[in-house]
């Protein structure tokens, strides 16, 4: 943000008019107007008085501050998430500009990388642009993986390992996996108790709902992977049993209904059963068009008015694009490539 914009924003926050600022500093009103438009700059001798008038210090006026508070990061991330629902490119530029403004704020950089990485997966931008943006996100995460902040460092390493596995760069993935401690103490319940005493039961319950959602989603992903492993080792009956458990889990924990179909699709893909795959892909696509009504679950209802809660109401088409891209690019779907019925199904949803 330019100094002129800062003067304007802080002036309005202080409830001052341009005329009042001009009177206080003994300059003309047009001079203040020119500062705010960026046409000219205040004389250096006026800066201490200007900062006092606007109730800020010189560091804030000149962006010497290198870190943002947790609250400021949270507010920006919420704005970024909302923008990403409409335009990934706009959100990407917004995040990039913020990082330029605060290049040493590791927590901010990691948070931006997390939001944009999730948005990139569901975006409809072309593959070349997607690779370009992915490269930048990886660069940001590699920076934060060296952070002195342990939480940021470990989280960044975990995310990088996941991305490198996705790119089938297993050597690089292992480098970052080795940086993650084997055992990290889970302080969730203690944190919940502290929040309840400091900020109230609702705030603590909201925090716990988020942790629960994260944990349940992780368990769901573990089960998906276990199904694949059982198929690979020839334990087909075990894979089917785990698929049934995974299906029931969706209802029990109020997850998105398409998750009931995914375990059976994983089995069909492993067995290269074309007919079954097409039938299940149809079901997955149909379910993906229905919003995840997470707020109707007693487990997550506090998310109703949050960015996360609202975002799940409109991800259907993005999910279709992501699935189509996965089938087109991943080796395990090779047997489905060129299937006219499948192409017709996707074209119906993507028209």
UniProtKB/TrEMBL annotation:
Lineage, broadest ranks? Bacteria, Bacillati, Bacillota, Clostridia, Lachnospirales
GO molecular function terms listed in the Swiss-Prot or TrEMBL record: DNA binding
Q: SUPFAM superfamilies recorded for this chain? A: lambda repressor-like DNA-binding domains
This chain's protein is named: XRE family transcriptional regulator
Concerning CDD domains, the annotation shows: HTH_XRE
What are the alphabetically sorted keywords of the record?
DNA-binding
Q: Which SMART domains match?
A: HTH_XRE (SM00530)
> Pfam families, from UniProt?
HTH_3
């Amino acid at each position: 943000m330019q100094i002129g914009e800062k003067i304007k924003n802080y002036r309005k926050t202080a409830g001052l008019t341009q005329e009042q600022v001009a009177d206080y500093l003994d300059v003309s009103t047009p001079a203040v107007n020119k500062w705010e438009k960026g046409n000219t700059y205040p004389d250096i001798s006026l800066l201490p008085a200007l900062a006092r008038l606007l109730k800020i210090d010189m560091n804030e006026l000149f962006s010497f501050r290198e870190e943002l508070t947790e609250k400021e990061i949270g507010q920006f991330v919420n704005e970024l998430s909302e923008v990403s629902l409409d335009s990934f490119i706009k959100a990407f530029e917004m995040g990039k500009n913020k990082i330029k403004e605060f290049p040493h704020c590791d927590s901010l950089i990691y948070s931006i990388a997390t939001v944009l990485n999730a948005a990139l997966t569901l975006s409809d931008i072309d593959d070349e642009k997607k690779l370009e943006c992915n490269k930048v996100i990886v660069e940001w995460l590699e920076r934060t993986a060296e952070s002195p902040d342990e939480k940021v460092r470990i989280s960044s390493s975990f995310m990088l390992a996941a991305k490198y596995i996705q790119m089938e760069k297993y050597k690089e993935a292992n480098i970052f996996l080795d940086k993650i401690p084997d055992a990290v103490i889970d302080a969730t319940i203690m944190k919940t108790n502290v929040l309840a005493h400091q900020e109230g039961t609702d705030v603590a319950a909201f925090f716990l709902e988020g942790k629960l959602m994260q944990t349940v989603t992780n368990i769901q992903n573990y089960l998906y992977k276990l199904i694949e492993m059982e198929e690979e080792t020839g334990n087909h009956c075990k894979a089917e049993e785990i698929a049934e458990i995974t299906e029931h889990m969706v209802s029990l924990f109020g997850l998105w209904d398409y998750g009931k179909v995914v375990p059976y699709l994983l089995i069909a893909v492993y067995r290269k059963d074309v007919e079954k795959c097409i039938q299940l892909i149809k079901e997955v696509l149909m379910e993906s068009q229905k919003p995840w009504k997470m707020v109707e679950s007693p487990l997550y209802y506090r998310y109703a008015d949050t960015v996360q809660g609202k975002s799940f109401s409109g991800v259907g088409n993005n999910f279709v694009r992501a699935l189509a891209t996965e089938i087109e690019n991943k080796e395990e779907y090779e047997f489905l490539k060129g299937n006219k019925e499948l192409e017709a199904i996707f074209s119906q949803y993507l028209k």
